Every structure is written in structure tokens, then in C-alpha cells.
């Protein structure tokens, strides 16, 4: 969970988010090298009073500063495309979670179980316990088993929404009349928070998402109680 003065990304809770953080750091290092080189050349040009006609008019230097950015873009594009296909792949999910966005709450349906569905509303501030996060806790949490491939199917009943959990690296648009799907696997227990990331109306910021990651045995016991 992100906190005050935290300038970095949230701690990852899935392998995909780990790869996203690695790619983020990889791209930042390339940008840092580019900024350093450009800054050094600007300072050199400002301080140097001499002029060379070979630099002002040179086919070789123009060729180099055309090829060099292309090579840099390749080093950014290859891991980016790899990660893009990795996020889009569905790897034999053990269970499916269907999510429907409403104005302004989420409905969840465990498609692999009979009559296991519920609505998830934000807990009002006066009803929240002291240790809860304001505007981020819900009355019904999504309980999911960790270390299991999970497919999520997202749609909407009225307007555009977006089901987003940053620590999982998941952001799927909820579009009326359309089913969008993604897969993820949670690699640690705990509570994972998210919100609707689409400007869907007046109460757009009151659509929190809370995922409770538990062990497989605890998930089975929870399903037995809910059924």
C-alpha cells in the first residue's frame, strides 16, 4: 500500500508487477544516461568558444545521432513487447472471477461455484474501524487464493469503469456490453487495495477494491461458509 512521501511504486504482489517494476527501472536508467549525455554536451557547447566546421557540417555525426536513438529504442521496445504479451496471456486459470461495475459499486461472481456472488460497497467513514483506510475499505472483500492462476472477466452495467489493483499490475476497462479478461497470480498473503480508474461519474472515487489474499485451505473454508 502506498503511503505519504512514497515516491516509488507499490510493493509487488504478483510476478507481472515485479516485471513491470523491473521494466520501469530499466527505462529510467536509459533515460538517466540520455539526460546525462545531453546535459554534458550542452554544457560543453556553452563553455567552448571554438567552432569546428566538421561538427557543424558532418555526415558522420548526423548518421550517428540518427542511429543511436534507434538502437536505444530497441533496448526499450524488446522488454516492453515481451511484457505486453506476458500480461495478455491466459495460463490455464484454476478459477474465474467475474466483476461487474455499477454506479458506484462493484459486483463479484465466482463462476466456478454455485450461488457465490455479492456486491461490494465502500464502508462509510463513520462506520470504519480506526485501523482501516479511509475511502479504500469495502463491506465485502474479494477473497482469492494465492499462488493460483486466476482469470478475471470485467464488464459494466451502465457506464465505463476500470477495475484496477496497482500492486497486482492489473488494470482492465469495464465496458457495457463487452467482456474484457486478464489473468494474475498473487504471490503473497495480505490485503490489496485498488479503485476505479475511469472517470465514471460523480461518485467515481467511491468505488474501492479490496482483495484478501489467503492460502488455499482458508479459501476453501471461506467458500464453504459463503455457499
UniProtKB/TrEMBL annotation:
Which cofactor does the UniProt annotation name? Cu cation
- Ranges that cross the membrane: 20-43, 64-85
Cellular localisation: Mitochondrion inner membrane
Single GO MF annotation: oxidoreductase activity
Q: What is this protein called?
A: Cytochrome c oxidase subunit 2
Q: Does Translocase appear among the keywords?
A: yes
Keyword list, A-Z: Copper, Electron transport, Magnesium, Membrane, Metal-binding, Mitochondrion, Mitochondrion inner membrane, Respiratory chain, Translocase, Transmembrane, Transmembrane helix, Transport
Q: Decide whether keyword Mitochondrion is in the record.
A: yes
Pfam families for the chain = COX2, COX2_TM
Textual note on the cofactor: Binds a copper A center.
| Membrane topology term | Multi-pass membrane protein
Query: What organism is listed for this UniProt entry?
Result: Nasutitermes exitiosus
Which InterPro entries does its entry note?
Answer: CcO_II, CcO_II-like_C, CcO_II_C, Copper_CuA, Cupredoxin, Cyt_c_oxidase_su2, Cyt_c_oxidase_su2_TM_dom, Cyt_c_oxidase_su2_TM_sf
Query: Assembly and partners?
Result: Component of the cytochrome c oxidase (complex IV, CIV), a multisubunit enzyme composed of a catalytic core of 3 subunits and several supernumerary subunits. The complex exists as a monomer or a dimer and forms supercomplexes (SCs) in the inner mitochondrial membrane with ubiquinol-cytochrome c oxidoreductase (cytochrome b-c1 complex, complex III, CIII).
What PANTHER family does this protein's entry cite? CYTOCHROME C OXIDASE SUBUNIT 2 (PTHR22888:SF9), CYTOCHROME C OXIDASE, SUBUNIT II (PTHR22888)
Q: Domain Cytochrome oxidase subunit II transmembrane region profile spans what residues?
A: 1-91
Q: Report which reactions are catalysed by this protein.
A: 4 Fe(II)-[cytochrome c] + O2 + 8 H(+)(in) = 4 Fe(III)-[cytochrome c] + 2 H2O + 4 H(+)(out)
Entry function = Component of the cytochrome c oxidase, the last enzyme in the mitochondrial electron transport chain which drives oxidative phosphorylation. The respiratory chain contains 3 multisubunit complexes succinate dehydrogenase (complex II, CII), ubiquinol-cytochrome c oxidoreductase (cytochrome b-c1 complex, complex III, CIII) and cytochrome c oxidase (complex IV, CIV), that cooperate to transfer electrons derived from NADH and succinate to molecular oxygen, creating an electrochemical gradient over the inner membrane that drives transmembrane transport and the ATP synthase.
Entry superkingdom: Eukaryota
What is any one GO biological process for this UniProt entry?
ATP synthesis coupled electron transport
Domain (Cytochrome oxidase subunit II copper A binding): residue spans on this chain: 92-225
Amino acid at each position: 500500500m502506498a503511503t505519504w512521501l512514497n515516491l516509488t511504486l507499490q510493493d509487488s504482489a504478483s510476478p507481472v508487477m515485479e516485471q513491470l517494476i523491473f521494466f520501469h527501472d530499466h527505462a529510467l536508467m536509459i533515460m538517466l544516461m540520455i539526460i546525462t549525455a545531453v546535459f554534458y554536451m550542452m554544457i560543453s557547447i556553452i563553455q567552448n568558444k571554438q567552432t569546428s566546421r566538421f561538427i557543424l557540417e558532418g555526415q558522420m555525426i548526423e548518421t550517428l545521432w540518427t542511429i543511436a536513438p534507434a538502437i536505444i529504442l530497441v533496448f526499450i521496445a524488446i522488454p516492453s513487447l515481451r511484457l505486453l504479451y506476458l500480461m495478455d496471456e491466459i495460463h490455464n486459470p484454476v478459477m474465474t472471477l467475474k466483476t461487474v461495475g455499477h454506479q458506484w459499486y462493484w459486483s463479484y461472481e465466482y463462476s466456478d461455484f454455485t450461488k457465490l456472488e455479492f456486491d461490494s460497497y465502500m464502508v462509510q467513514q463513520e462506520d470504519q474501524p480506526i485501523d482501516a483506510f479511509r475511502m479504500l475499505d469495502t463491506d465485502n472483500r474479494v477473497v482469492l487464493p494465492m499462488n493460483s492462476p486466476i482469470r478475471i472477466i470485467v464488464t459494466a452495467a451502465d457506464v465505463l469503469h476500470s477495475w484496477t489493483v496497482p500492486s497486482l499490475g492489473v488494470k482492465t476497462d469495464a465496458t457495457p456490453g463487452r467482456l474484457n479478461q486478464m489473468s494474475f497470480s498473487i504471490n503473497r498473503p495480505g490485503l490489496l487495495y485498488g479503485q476505479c480508474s475511469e472517470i465514471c461519474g460523480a461518485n467515481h472515487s467511491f468505488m474501492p477494491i479490496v482483495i484478501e489474499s489467503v492460502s488455499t485451505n482458508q479459501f476453501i473454508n471461506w467458500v464453504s461458509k459463503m455457499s
